[in-house]
Amino acid sequence: MCSILFTSKDIKDYDDINYYLKFRGPDDTSIVKDEVNNFTFIHNLLSMTGEFTTQPFQKDGIVCLYNGEIYNYKDFGDYKSDGYCIIDLYKKYGVNFVKKLDGEFAIALLDFNEDIILIATDPFKTKPLFYSHSNREFGCSTYRTALDKIGHNDVYKAKTNMAMIFRISDSKLLDQFIINNFDLEQHKDNFDDWTKAFQNSIFKRTNDTTQNIFIGLSSGYDSGAICCELLKQEVPFKAYSVLTPIIVHENRRVVEERQRIISQSNISEFQNLMKDQDIRVQHRNLLKSGTEEFNYTIRSDSSDYNEYDRRLIDDKAASWMSWVCDTAKKENKRLYLTGMGADEIFSDYGFNGIKKTNHSNFGGLFPNDLKEVFPWASFYFSTMESYLAKEEYVAGLHGLEARYPFLDKDVVQEFLWLKPELKNSQYKSVLDNYFVENKFPFSRGEKKGF
After folding, report:
1. Which residues pair with residue 335 across a beta bridge?
2. Taking 70 as the threshold, does the pLDDT of residue 299 lie above it?
3. Interior CA angle at 202 toward 380 and 436, to 5°?
4. Residue 40, phi then psi, degrees to nearest 5
5. Phi, psi values for residue 437, rounded to 5°
6. How far apart are CA 408 and CA 126, in angstroms?
7. What confidence score (pLDDT) does residue 86 get?
8. Which of 333, 312, 315 is nearest to 403 (CA)?
9. Edge-to-edge order in the sheet of strand 116-121
10. Binning pLDDT at 50, 70 and 90, where does residue 1 land?
């Protein structure tokens, strides 16, 4: 969970510009001023993979800033850390190198020899990225506030699942292309390949780090599946459950059964955090002072429902998540595995055509031809964009890394390949099948949350 910034404009107050960004990278801050090309590069490091690696990366007139994790970097050579592979891959494959990456990332690369800037993210833009290319000036940052304060005009969110190429000399957009094309043929008649993809997704997000891992554990499907797979792979972790004295949002029996299994593992542990409104207000105030303002973009394809005026800090779940992150950080746990994306991809917040939330698009009833609904609003945007921002802004404030097993591109592709009768067989059918196969406690059909 690093943060990046580069700009062709002068920076007058580095501390002010870097205020929100610095929380994401508590291990190191690098500031490099390129006097020849008139660019300033800032990187705040959270060291998670390989050796301690400061940025920007520089080689043969190419400069790169990068935030996130590239899980397949060892496929490309013997690199000391994942970011080192980026410039080499660009020199070998050109701008299309981003299609070869498997991970959760935001990349900004400047090739002064070819006079181009490339910005790109993973298919779901799990790591926030903003840019401006107006008035022949270019700026790019993890958070938009830094660009606003520098004086950049017309600041935009980077496009999801899209690489964009600009000319350095005049900041003009030259080209853009889709990074990952999902195949919509629904042809697989069993869950086996999806389960293998999910197992591998957990493995790749936990095997190459020395950091302590934590999860938020509820009675719901998403955290339960992550918990179960971590136990199966014997990965040590701690599970935090935010509960109320009066049972409202959670199926307490399911939570307690899951905690009992954790306690039997001898390598993992759990802790209950009992809701207190004073603590929620405390963390809302912390978010207000430590994160830039972000308004949700939640909507539905099938109605005029929207939450465009809802602020991230007004989402109670953000405050409870902040409490979990704060508690985990104090116990030296820096890697957070989150269930983000399962609602958006596997159920559309509904089942059998019945919406569980107002922002569901088609009530979770997947059609025989996926092209009829793909990409539905929350596949890339709506709750996907909004709740990813919640995860990133909250975890980033606490200097922690959030990773997203359900947004692994292979996990998503395997789900899309399932025949519609399998997708529609149960609520979140892939997870229902996973729980049944592993005899792990869950409450069928329940949608639970903060």
Report:
1. 213, 401
2. yes
3. 95
4. -115, 135
5. -60, -35
6. 10
7. 98
8. 333
9. 57-59, 62-70, 103-111, 116-121, 162-167, 173-178
10. confident
Is the confidence at residue 89, as pLDDT, over 70?
yes
Confidence category of residue 262, pLDDT binned at 50, 70, 90: very high
CA atoms within 13 A on the CB side of 54: 8
- In this structure, the chain runs to a length of 450
| Residue showing tokens 């698009």 | 361
* Cα 322 from Cα 397, distance rounded (Å): 8
Domains observed in the chain: 3-178 (3.60.20.10), 192-438 (3.40.50.620)
Torsion sign (Cα): 165, 167, 168, 171? negative
pLDDT tens figures, 16-43: 999 999 999 999 999 999 999 999 999 9
Taking the complete model, does pTM exceed 0.85, yes or no? yes
pLDDT digits (tens, 9 = 90+) for 192-219: 999 999 999 999 999 988 899 999 999 9
Structure-token pair, residue 449: 């949350």
101-141 pLDDT, tens digit each: 999 999 999 999 999 999 999 999 999 999 999 999 999 99
Residues with Cβ < 8 Å from 421, sequence gap 6 or more?
Answer: none
Beta-bridge partners for 119: 108, 164
